[in-house]
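Listing S7. Sequence submitted for prediction.
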Amino acid sequence: MATTLKQVKVKRTVYGDNRNPSEVKQYIGNCVDTGSIATLFKNPGIITAFYTEGSNAEAAIQAAIDAHGITPTTANKNTINDKVTLGKLWLDNYSSQVEVISNDDANRTTRVEAATNISHSYLTPQKLNATKKGIPQVPIVTISNVGAGKADARIINGVDYQPSQTTYILVEVAAGAAISISGGQLIIELAHAGQVIVTTAARKGKFTHFTGLKLGITYELYAYAQNGKSQVSALSIPVPVSG
């Protein structure tokens, strides 16, 4: 009797939880560029017209961003959000098609193979097996300014990044901070006065939003992950952002 394999799904929160319009736009573009030439997903697997729709959605987000940059009204800001929503709908449709093709019996014999198929689309497959707890991966962080005094931070590790908690530290560069972790404790020593903002996110916590940054001031973002009190990663490599 043949064994029916459980389908491997696309991890849609990778793009669904992203609130940065530029990053969503780029993600759509990466999916179009990657999927449209991949053996399983190029035309006729997924038709050319559908990829054209994706490129159009990408262009619409950029046009809305540009319009808001010229005229930063609430209406133009709302238009950006509207175009991002439409772009994510395209990504959901793309994910559905990729799932069907990747899990087709003609294209996979194991769930691992189905997950590999999905990865050829630029999308991220769901995690197949539970990760044993231990010292978590060191976070790889990015951060971008999203408005006056605001910034969005994101961890770009792969699907194996599954800590119990992630802590983000944003500190003014001019403060000359020495940041370290010792015995599971975060230690921040400042050479000069300066602003420090710390946030935490439960579970994998791959995204956080900062507000209250000082305009024109340069900051550095650090992050570390932990499983319980004693299993703590090293600090991430710092990345800069302006308030």
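Caption to Listing S7: primary sequence and predicted structure tokens for the chain studied. The two ends are 62 Å apart (CA to CA). The longest strand covers residues 218-227.
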